[in-house]
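ugh ok fine here u go
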Amino acid sequence: MQVTNELTPRPEAAQAFFSDADHGPMVMVNLLKFKDKASYPDGRDPELSGRDAYNRYGVAVVDCLAAVGGHVIYSGPVTGLLLGAVEEPWDAVALAFYPSVQAMLQMVALPQYQAIEIHRYAGLAGQLNIRTKARP
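structure:
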């Protein structure tokens, strides 16, 4: 199995993901890999860790999720691996509930989301997003 962390979805992957209008409520599993040091385009906070930059995003995204009927289920650091093998484990896991695929699209279009996304890019080396079907 090959694993590739990315920061933004490829256009064909995004189109397939968001065209699934009948999916219903979902939980997004976010496997996060942080940069050692944050990298902002304007050079601010050069000593800030990638984890701390992403945490700025994580604190603010809670309100964005709530605005579209979503919420964080869990967020925390990866502390070990019991089963399987991966060359470089992820640093953290976050689970976010969305009432629909459309709600996720609405959230990323919010001006307040777009304003905080800079922290996500500054802090993340890459991630995996896995959509799961939420229990009714």
